[in-house]
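Hi there,

I know you've been waiting on this one. I reran it after we fixed the sequence typo, so this is the corrected version. Both the input and the resulting structure follow.
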Amino acid sequence: MFSKDGLMDEIRARFAHVDSCPFQGERVFFENAGGALTLKSVVQTSAFYAAIPDNQGRDNVAAAELMQVIAKAKDDMAVMFNKSSGQFFVGESGTELLFRMIRTAVVESADGGRVIGSSLEHPASRSAAIRWAGIAEKEYVSVPHNDATGSVSAKDYARHITADTRVATILHTSPVTGMAVDVEAVAALIRECAPDCLIIVDGIQHAAHGRLDLTAYGVDGYAVSPYKVFSRHGYGLAWVS
């Protein structure tokens, strides 16, 4: 694929600040865990909509067009995530959306029971789960990750899942080790033991590196941060069942 003459130049031309930083000067961008290069089309689109004075939902031509753009974006999300049911929504960031989903899942679940996650997780899910488990007076259980694999498996979760597990969090791919988790297998294991458990997934690092298939995963919430998928900072995308 990359043997085509000029292809790499065409790809590089689509991104802003590929080989230089406006503050640092020339550099090679290797900030894998912290973000990604931004597509020039994202900058152009953001500038276009930032300049429009109208709000969606108003009774004018611009507002009607904005509503159509939002509807199209949700349809595109359904394709990207491979999920036509449930609801897509946006927030301040992927971290903020995870916090909201985990808070709601924990607080609204039945009294008592457990909230479970793993030591592999980013604070985006782990800190939220620990905080709200404490507020809701539920036990927080941490599944130790596997140092040898840099991941956590369904087998690791199996040692800690009980029938009274109310909420479970899963990190899809670690920004530290770079290793993915088999979300489908972990979720299936949880459902066998605790079928009513609400499962929330941090897909922030995974979305830029792996295929998304919410239809297969069998989970209840999934969040991504678009700035890691060649978009920009300042918002997050989430899905709830």
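Quick highlight: The domain at 85-240 is CATH 3.40.640.10 (Aspartate Aminotransferase; domain 2).

Best,
R. S.
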